[in-house]
Each structure stands twice: as C-alpha cells, then as structure tokens.
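Input.
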Amino acid sequence: MRATGCSADVIRVGEIRQFYTGGATVVRVPVTVAKMLAKGRLLVGWVSAQVKVLPRKPLKCYRCLESGHVSAQCACETDRSRLCYRCGQPDHIARVCSATPHCPLCAERGKAADHKIGSQNCSPPTTRSRKAKSTAGRAPNSGPVRPVTREPVEAMETVAQ
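Output.
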C-alpha cells in the first residue's frame, strides 16, 4: 500500500467470493486508509477494483446471541454460546451445518423461527448491558467516553469487475 503509507501487518484480507460479474472480498484497514481508498478505485494486480466503505457492524453478544451489548456486559441468564447460528442446536458450527434454519431467540419469543440467528428476518429486541452508565459530571449530549487504545479499523469491500 505504497500510496497510503500503510504497513502490510495492519491489513486483513478476507476470503474472495466469486460472482458471475467478478469477485469481492472484505479488507480491514485503518480508518484513515479506508477514507483515502474510498475516493476512487484500487489497482489489485492487473484488475481495477471498486472500493466501498461498509457500515459498522452492531454490537453482538456471543454468550446470549442478542445484539446491543457484548459478552463482558451480558446480564442474560441463558448461555447460548455453544449453539449453531444456523439451526440453534449445540456443539457444531454453522459452516458445517446442513440442518433447517431455526432461530432460538425468535422461538423463545413466540415469533416465526424459520431463519438463522441474526438474519434479516430475525426480530429479537436489542438488550442493554447490565452496567449502568453514570452521567454525573458529564456535559449534556457529550456521549460515552471511551479510551483510545489503538487506531480504529474500518471494513471495506473491494469489487473487481
């Protein structure tokens, strides 16, 4: 990445997916690099690739499988961490699962559960963490205060056409 000045050890490239119009992959780079690359096209070998900055993924708890918090802040008593994301059965992963999709989150709430966890058809409510956030001493509308420990990373998709 000569043009951006980014070192190769901070770049993460995902698996290339093939489509009839070309291929696509997700590349994780620092935010500053993503903003520079999103302004145009990226030359990858002999191919000129289109660059799109992807929206940030929502928080996801891998303990209870609900969104809106992470497992370190989970207040749910049910541990679903060993369930398959596709069928909701324990002790295997979705990549090797060929069972019919079933969402245990929607099934618990009495909703249609004929989809995999987290799909577009999934409609469980997001839950808040159990840790109450103190607003004392903060300016109004200042938002949460987070310590910066490393440079943020942005995901982007490159599409070769």
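Confidence is low (pLDDT under 50) at residues 129-150.
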